[in-house]
Every structure is written in C-alpha cells, then in structure tokens.
Specification:
By secondary structure, this protein is an alpha/beta fold. It contains 19 helices and eleven strands. About 45% of the residues lie in helices and about 10% in strands.
Length: about 575
C-alpha cells in the first residue's frame, strides 16, 4: 500500500505537463492531494519527499492552483518540521516559494507566521539534537577507563593521526549537511522578513526574536548566528524590499579629495563619516554584521533639515539654525559630535531617554512588556531569561528621533531608541582602518557566477563554441529572460572577475540578476571578445567560463551535447537548453 502511494504521487507529477487538458477544479484537487501526501511521514517516508518536489514543479506548471492552495499546504509544513529525513527538502521548498513573489503576494500575517515557524522550529530541533549529541559524547568520554598500556594503533600514519573510519566519515557528512540545513533555515527568515512591508515587519518582530531566543543553543550567551539575524531585523525594520534591492552589495568610498574620517561603534555596528576638508559633502557609511549602507549628503543642509524636523516635532518653531558642523574646521565638527555623544551617554545611564524625545510614548515598564533595555542587552550578546520571555513576550521597540541632533548622524541603528550611545574609535588607527577595508570588500549578499555558452548548428568542439560572437533569435530571447544588462565599465560591486576598468578586455556588457539575498553575474560567451587570430582572448574567455561551477548551454547543434566539450575541474553542473521549433 505504501509503495503504491509513492508511485501514485510520482505519476501526479507527470500529469502536470498536461495542464492544458486539466480543468481548474482538477488542478486544485491535484495540488490538494500532494499537500495531503506531506503527512505520510511514518507509513511511506519517501512520499513526502516526492510530494515536496512535485509541489516545487507545480509552482511553475500550475501557478494559479498553487496560489489558491498554498495556505492549506503551509499548515501541513508546520506539522512535519521535526522529520529529520525531510528537513533539507522542506526548507528548500519554503525557500523556493520566496523566489516566486507571485505565490505570496496575497499572504497575510498568519501565512508569514507559518513560514517563520517552519524555519525557527528547525533551528530549535537542530540545537536540541546538538545538545543531546554533546551530552552523549561527554558521558561516553567520562565513562571510558584510562588505558595506560594501550598499544599503538596500526592505523596511525607517520603523522600520528588515525584515518577516519566509514562511520566517522558518515558522521562528518551528517554534520556538514546539518550545518547546510541550519544556514538555509536562517536564510528563509532573512528572505521573508526582507520581503515584508514595514508595517508587517513591526507585527512579526516579537514572534521572530522570541523564537530565536527560545531556540538559542548556548545557555549563557546569544549565538552568533542569532546576533546576525537580530541585527538584520533591526537594520531593515523600516526599509521596503525596493529600498533593500537598491543597496549596493559592497561599500565603495567616494572620491571626495582630502577628507576627515571618523568612526563610531555602537553594539554590532560602526558608523563612518567622511567629510570633505574643503567642501560641504560627506559620505556616511553604516556597517553592521548583517550588511552596510552608504549615503552622500550635503552636511550643512542635512543638519539644517534635521534641526527643522526636530523643531516641528516639538511644535516649536526654530529660532535659529545650529552652526554648521564645518563652520570652523572638519576636526572641530567631529569634536562637537563627540561632546554631544558624551552628554547623551550620561542621559542614557540615568535612563531618562524619554525626556530627550518629546512626543514619544513613555518608556515606563508595562506589565506585558520586557524591560526597556532588552534590545540593547541582546545586541551586547546577553540572553534574556526564559521566565521573562514567557511572562512578557513583547519587546519594547521605541522608534523616533535620537535624543540629540548629533546622535542622528552617528547612530548605527537609525530610528531605534533604548540603545547604548555610540563611542568614537581612535582616529588614524591602522588596525581599525585595515579591518574596515576587509569588511568593505566582503559582499553583503550571496554572490555566484554562472557561464552561458551558445552552441551553433553543427558545432562540436570547444574552440568553435568559444569563438561564437553571435547567436540565433531564440538564444537572444533566452538571454533577455535571465537578467539585466550591466555595463562593465560602470560596475563597482561584484563583477565575477570581469574587467571593469573600462578597457573592455572582457567585453562591454554582461548580464546580472539579484534578489534580496543573492546576486548572479553571468559569463556570457557571446558577449566576450574572441577572434581567431587572438589566442589570448580565447584563453581569457576559457579562464572565466572554465572556473564556473555551473554552465548553461544553449544547444542548437542538432545533436546531444557532450559533458566534457569544455573540460574543466570546476564544471560540476550543466544545464542544457535545447529549443524546440526555434522557441
């Protein structure tokens, strides 16, 4: 019976390809049946895996039916999160939903709560398993008697190491797989939270943070991955998905000429202000463990604007504008910021921040709310007690203007109150500058590079393929759907090793694609120069394409494409696209 059910679910996948002959109610029934198959975790363990993969196919083949039936499917996902054999498939399915925005455009708060629960439940399950294994290994090691007369193990080599047994190798593989799935769970939290509107983010904040705290592995400190996730939530609480997509994935220091540069650290964030010595412009860079942002401002105009906004909030017309931070010199400007920060620190110690922010809600502790410094404690890596979390599941999030004007420029968490006051780092300190340079060269999102090769009619050799500079209309139509055209000479972010100096050694253009957490740059063979009489161009093109793990091959040769046509030690995945009737 169980085997028959497994085969039946597999047949339903084949039925999707005949969607043109399946009526709407039958499509809904097909998706509903696959959703019910997710619950067969005990009788037929292979069936849920097949159903998850089938639902992944249905996202593309039966999109309308998936949109209609997805809320009921999500309810089943929460019930099977602890099935270890399904963890990878389950999280990959939830992650794939995030890549298709049309599937969750009409989601409500309850639907998003289910998606977050799937990820958080796996994190809790993973850490509970890790505790059991640690406890078991500790007890086993303690119970083992000391063997003083132990003979040398014949498996030891000259290095003194013992080769791993098959069971030990399997254990290492299991550990690597569990870490991969754990990272995927955090990725699910990231992508869905970043896709929410600011209003929905505010509603989901408590459940996400409480869930992460309750699943924390350490009993004394906040796990590093949870610190990063918390930082991501706080840094993006007021940004829309469009704002996030507009952020650069690397930090580039603008060429302002001679500048004065100062840094302030606040919890897991560092704010840098680079002000012109002989000008009005400044670059404000906000770095944290979950990303970085940069903006260019006219500093005197920005100070005036913020001053007017603060005056309007207090319903008092401004009597006079403050002196420009650059009125005397850039050094004195930064000095005034430091003095303001010091005044803010004394206020923070007395816990009278509300007196500096007229019009904001009172910070007095409410019965159903955690202590007002809870967020600051978490950013310091501290844990909150489980009794506090169970009694008061609400976090005292306070949004609004900083206590003083200077802090609005140097706060690492814009718009968020109840945090420690920023502290200025020593100026001209090489260790700080070196660390920031390394940080700035690290991409803020996952970056990948993929090759695209065109195989023309009758072509079979590597040289013929690498010399292609043109393709068929079907090939160009295929490229248009893969991403956006990028001018290489204007790229300042991740370029997958392509020449961006303006010399066009790798061509003038390439294709790029990105979403909220990942970015792809394509090495498109037909966009790279390659002439028969210039062997160095062919070698350069092969160096780019041959070092990519994934190759997409648009094959119009009229025969099967051989895997080793473009030999490489890194070519692990090949996606062969063969047009039918020129389409």
């Amino acid at each position: 019976k169980n085997r028959t059910a497994t085969y039946t679910y597999g047949l339903q996948v084949s039925c999707m390809h005949y969607k043109g002959w399946i009526k709407r109610d039958q499509q809904d029934l097909l998706i509903s049946t696959l959703g019910d198959g997710l619950m067969m975790t005990s009788g037929a363990p292979e069936a849920p895996q097949i159903c998850l993969h089938a639902l992944g196919v249905a996202m593309l083949e039966l999109h309308g039916a998936m949109v209609r039936m997805l809320p009921s499917i999500l309810q089943n996902l929460v019930r099977i999160y602890s099935a270890a054999q399904l963890s990878v498939h389950l999280l990959e399915f939830v992650s794939s939903i995030s890549r298709n925005q049309g599937l969750y455009t009409n989601f409500r708060k309850g639907d998003y709560q289910v998606l977050f629960a799937v990820a958080i439940n796996y994190i809790r399950f993973h850490n509970n398993q890790r505790r059991r294994e640690t406890s078991l290994s500790t007890n086993t090691a303690g119970a083992r008697p000391a063997d003083v007369g132990e003979k040398s193990d014949p498996r030891r080599q000259s290095t003194g190491a013992i080769p791993a047994s098959p069971s030990e190798k399997q254990l290492l593989n299991d550990v690597a797989l569990s870490q991969y799935v754990l990272v995927m769970a955090y990725q699910v939290i990231d992508v869905y939270f970043l896709s929410l509107t600011p209003a929905l983010k505010a509603e989901m904040f408590d459940s996400i943070i409480v869930g992460l705290l309750q699943s924390n592995y350490s009993r004394s400190n906040l796990d590093e991955v949870n610190e990063v996730c918390l930082d991501m939530v706080l840094q993006n609480h007021s940004r829309s998905s469009e704002d996030i997509l507009g952020l650069s994935d690397v930090t580039v220091q603008e060429d302002f000429g001679p500048v004065v540069e100062r840094h302030w650290i606040q919890h897991n964030g560092i704010v840098t202000i680079r002000a012109q010595k002989e000008g009005l412009m400044a670059q404000i860079i906000e770095r944290s463990c979950s990303g970085a942002t940069s903006r260019i401002v006219d500093l005197p105009a920005e100070v005036s604007r913020k001053y007017v906004e603060r005056a309007e909030r207090t319903e008092r017309p401004p009597t006079s504008l403050p002196a420009s931070p650059l009125s005397d010199s850039p050094v004195s400007a930064f000095g005034s910021l430091s003095q303001s920060a010091s005044r803010g620190r004394s206020i923070g110690r007395n816990r009278r921040l509300h007196s500096m922010a007229p019009g904001l809600p009172s910070l007095h502790h409410e019965p159903d709310m955690l202590p007002h410094d809870s967020i600051a404690r978490l950013l310091r890596g501290e844990l909150l007690s489980q009794s506090d979390l169970s009694r008061a599941p609400r976090f005292p999030m306070r949004f609004g203007a900083a206590p003083c004007l200077a802090l609005e420029f140097i706060n690492a968490y814009q718009g968020l109150q109840n945090l420690d006051v920023p502290v200025m780092l020593p100026p001209n300190f090489e260790a700080v500058a070196r660390s920031l340079r390394i940080f700035d060269n690290t991409a803020m999102v996952d970056t990948h590079k993929v090759s695209v090769a065109y195989v023309g009619p009758g072509q079979t050799t590597e040289r013929e393929i690498l010399l292609n500079q043109q393709g068929s209309p079907a090939y160009w139509n295929f490229l248009r759907g893969m991403g956006h055209i990028r001018r290489l000479g204007q790229m300042k972010d991740f370029s997958a090793g392509l020449d961006t100096s303006g010399q066009d050694s790798d061509g003038r253009y390439t294709l790029g694609w990105r979403d909220l957490i990942a970015k792809l740059i394509f090495h498109v063979g037909t966009l790279m120069p390659a002439r028969e009489d210039k062997q160095e161009q062919i070698v350069r093109k092969k160096a780019h394409m041959g070092n990519d793990f994934v190759h997409i091959v648009f094959n119009e040769s009229g025969r099967d494409y051989e895997f080793d046509t473009i030999p490489s030690q890194f070519n692990f995945v090949q996606i062969i696209v063969t047009p039918v009737d020129g389409q």
